[in-house]
Amino acid sequence: MATPTLEKMEEAAAASPYITVTFRIRRFNPEISDEAQWQDFQIEIDPKERVLDGLHKIKWDLDGTLTFRRSCAHGICGSDAMRINGKNRLACKTLIKDINPEKPITVEAIKGLTVMKDLVVDMEPFFQAYRDVMPFLVTKGNEPTRERLQSAEDRERFDDTTKCILCAACTSSCPVFWNDGQYFGPAAIVNAHRFIFDSRDEAGEQRLEILNDKDGVWRCRTTFNCTDACPRGIEVTKAIQEVKRALITRRY
């Protein structure tokens, strides 16, 4: 077999889609230090790949101690929400080429929740707020003998808020939540909206009373951070305003 010439090797390198990218990751390990520190990693990666692919390269090839959550890698599970270049995003849906790879790509944990290690935060307060708004269908009477029918128009009323994947990108982008962890947060309100406006449900009034609490829907300051951060394109701020309107008019 002929050995490739230096010229051909240079041509192949020039045609390679790979570029050198610097990942600047905010590291935190409570077993080592109480302070977080930034650490840079340089990797070769195709700019059409995702930030999650870059994190995998770092963990698998450079530093196995790097800690982050991920599961489906297709924007469905919502487990890899993190701050990338100062914005909440899903690492599995963020392409390298879309965030200016010529500069360091900063990656850090989402805000407002306690960081446990590196990019992993304690999600329990977030999920507790979700549980508190009763995110399930409530009906009266005996078990039905057939499905509970609903018109296409009634289904469309809450279609947008069924898209939530509980990634916490919206809640952890909220300035109110950053300063007061007792606030229910956008995600909990979105999931309450999904059932408040469901024509089959019979607990809308109860959910409204839960959200009428001092830590409920009235804490929203309509900054639209949540809407901008949602990876599923949910009109989060609009849903919150609709819940506020329902509280005032008791019509839903």
TrEMBL record:
Keywords: 2Fe-2S, 3Fe-4S, 4Fe-4S, Iron, Iron-sulfur, Metal-binding, Oxidoreductase, Tricarboxylic acid cycle. The keyword Iron applies. Residues 154-176 form the 4Fe-4S ferredoxin-type domain. The keyword Membrane does not apply. Gene3D superfamilies: 3.10.20.30, Alpha-helical ferredoxin (1.10.1060.10). Binds 1 [2Fe-2S] cluster. It catalyses: a menaquinone + succinate = a menaquinol + fumarate. Residues 19-113 form the 2Fe-2S ferredoxin-type domain. Its EC number is 1.3.5.1. Belongs to the succinate dehydrogenase/fumarate reductase iron-sulfur protein family. This is Fumarate reductase iron-sulfur subunit. It comes from Streptomyces flavotricini.
